[in-house]
Amino acid sequence: MKFTPIILLILYLAAMWFFSLWRLKQDLNQKSTPLTHPRLTPMLERLGRAMDLPPVRAHVYEVEPVNGLAAPDGRIFLTRGFIRKLDAGEVTPEELASVIAHELGHVAHGHARRRMIDFAGQNAIRMALATVLGRFIPGLGAWIAGLIASAVAARLSRDDEFEADRFATALMMRAGLGTAPQISLFRKLERLTGGKGAAAPAWLLSHPPIPRRIAAIEAQEGRWRQG
């Protein structure tokens, strides 16, 4: 069958995907502890109450890069680097609450599961395009197909980030924390992460530009207050 190589490649990539998820879970299990920071515990309680649930449970991932993470199994993590920024007074508890709310948005919308499905579809598209384009543009067909698939993946990832931002905005407002911490953290983010601006074209970035994210949050807040 002429599609057998494509099917085998997709199965191989899917196996690698599941292996990477297993490795991530093992790493998180070995390098994380429950989040019990005294300045963040009230934030976890407020977020839980806003959802009519017990306090949100989160963990500290013992790595230095500043980041938040929603694991495929639904657990929420802040990195030790983020906690150090809190202790140094560079971020506030409310700002870190907005990170946790954002990661809860990823969990609530099932983004990890959706990425797994998208991953298989994107690789099928990549292989089909590479086969077709390779006949007309030898040597460049596979590269162009890869670029198109990467652009599609980046667009889907940006959509997920906007969706998680919207969830976080609604949750922060319902918790009485407002959108100011969410916006102020975005304005600090490049400095906190040591970023020097986007090195890739906007259409290949996995996260939307910060000004667009802030504008979307402000627009949503306006609609939410009116409604």
Automatic annotation (TrEMBL):
CDD domains associated with the record: M48C_Oma1_like (cd07332)
Q: Tell me the Pfam families matching this sequence.
A: Peptidase_M48 (PF01435)
Cofactor(s) annotated in UniProt: Zn(2+)
Q: Which residues span the membrane?
A: 6-24, 136-155
GO terms for molecular function, please?
Answer: metal ion binding; metalloendopeptidase activity
The keyword Ribonucleoprotein appears for this protein: no
Q: What are the record keywords, sorted?
A: Hydrolase, Membrane, Metal-binding, Metalloprotease, Protease, Transmembrane, Transmembrane helix, Zinc
Give the similarity note: Belongs to the peptidase M48 family.
Q: Report the protein name in the record.
A: M48 family metallopeptidase
